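Section: Multi-chain targets

For targets with more than one molecule, the full set of components is provided together so that the structure can be written out for the assembly as a whole rather than chain by chain. Components appear in the order listed by the source. The example entry contains two components.
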Amino acid sequence: MIAGHSIALLDAYAWIQQVRPEALPLNPIARWEWVFPVVESIHICGMALLVGTIAILDLRLMGVFFTFRPVSEIGRLTKPWINRGLIIMLLTGPYLLSSDPSEYIQVGAFKVKMCLFLFAIAFHFTIIRRATQPRNDGQPPGRRTAAACMSLLLWTSVMLAGLWIGNL
Amino acid sequence: MSPLEFAEFLSRTRISETLRDGIYDFPVLIILHILSIGLFGGALALTDMRILGWALTGIPVSQVIDQFRLWKWIGFVSLLVTGILLTLSDPVEYHNNLMFWVSVLVLAIIGIDAAIFRNGVYRSVSEWDQVLPVPAPARAWAARSLILWIALVFIGRAIAFF
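Its structure, encoded as tokens over all components, is:
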């Protein structure tokens, strides 16, 4: 059903192009060649902020860094930057997609990335957020380490899938 | 030996030819390169933002720098190694690429600036470890560092575009 509506949206996009075939695309990212690399660079910076900060939080969960501070405090301190990184990704990602939606939606790596991304986000806002609650500070580290490893694995997979799109 | 001759010499080495011949070498290197940005860039951003007073403000500056140091170094080495191998895959092409030289220059500026910071205002870090706002020279350096690293991402991406 979601696929059906997406295809309908893409058809509308194609129809708009058809109405003015001789004109250049309205979307800047499709119109000027240099827009895509610029937005892609912002996407990479946002990725560094989002995944990089999550990596720090995961490393604290695994007990590698900042062990002199409670997990909940590191969680509290990293939360705003994870959120800001996420906002950058949610803005640049779809805009990059808009450069050629009908093409991207067929690419396997893109579909895989979106699934992994949803999984990683869901995992983060449930398991990881729960692991950084103050009441869980005294818990034995085993589960936290497992959650952190899963988180790092998921986000690395998202990045790999995204990079694989770029290399096709 | 001129830079071009050196680039041509490099392109005739075994490692350069191997990297050029393989179809997977370049994609794998680029993937590892950008993966490193993703995993280690956050530590860099958070360190600079701590000095700017925007992030992790509950933790003394020297502790933040101390804790992140290893992670950042692993990332930097990873970026450097993949970057050098990428360059070796086609030295002549990169020699002719303006953006490549700009990226080398920016990298050099970052390194020199960091050395100046370490030997300068960072020497007195114990005085402003927990102070907000952090002294202006330190904040100025952190801002420069952040801007230069972000610019490097754009310039690095532009290498492929030129």
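The mean pLDDT of chain B is 92.
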